[in-house]
Amino acid sequence: MFVLRYSKASPYARKVRIAGDICGLSDLISIKDTDTKDPNNRLRDENPLGKIPVLILENGTALYDSRVIIDYLDCYSGGGKLIPQDAHLKFEALKYQSLADGLNDAALIIRHEIAVRRPQLRDDEFILYQQEKIDRAISVLSKLPPQGPINIGHIAVACALGYLDLRFEGNWRYSSPALVDWLETFSAKTPSFRETAL
Questions:
Q1: pLDDT tens readout for residues 62-118
Q2: CATH number of 87-192
Q3: Which tops the pLDDT comparison, 181 or 37?
Q4: 2-76: CATH class
Q5: Same fold for the domain at 2-76 and the one at 87-192?
């Protein structure tokens, strides 16, 4: 049995949960909701960065971050379920994952600036800089979302869009109807995406 330390709102942890399901490993993964701000939980012992997700293996080894965990789950389940084995398809999928993770990074920074930082200390220029990253990523994804059989690229992009829906009221949807259609198709094919929604 594995233990996954996660938070419901984390797009990275959601990505791992969906990956585990697609690999057929959901029954082997015990989900533990984790407060990253609590200095008394074991998270900092398992990941010195104090970040989630963390996957604790049966032998007690802790794996982090989401990319490493997903690579492990793919290998554990025989390979090729999340990360294509064909070199061209593999790097295409990993490229989409990187784009989605960068989109998440920018969205999380904006969320922190708005939700945590006092208004007089907010850096509006920095927020705009992050928003421009999100806008460019959405523009690229609108023109060419991940294609073909579902892989880590699809999962990562869907989780990033889901995070934008959660934290920014789905504003990306107004200018990207084709990407909305893509996400609805992905959601219809992927029960674990619907099950992990907030």
A1: 999 999 999 999 999 999 999 999 999 999 999 999 999 999 999 999 999 999 889
A2: 1.20.1050.10
A3: 181
A4: alpha beta
A5: no
Nearest to 175 by CA among 128, 134, 125, 147: 134
Q: Within 10 A of 165 (CB to CB), how many other CB atoms are there? A: 16
124, 132 Cβ separation under 8 angstroms = no
Q: Distance of CA 45 to CAs 29, 33, 69, 80, 172, Å?
A: 20, 16, 17, 32, 38
147-178, pLDDT tens digit by residue? 999 999 999 999 999 999 999 998 999 999 99
Other Cβ atoms closer than 10 A to 157: 25
Domain positions in the chain are: 2-76, 87-192
Query: pTM here?
Result: 0.96
User: Residue 105 and residue 11: Cα distance in Å, rounded?
Assistant: 10
**Interacting residues of 33 by C-beta distance below 8 A, sequence separation 6+:** 6, 7, 8
3-class SS shares of the chain: helix, strand, coil, % to 5: 60, 10, 30
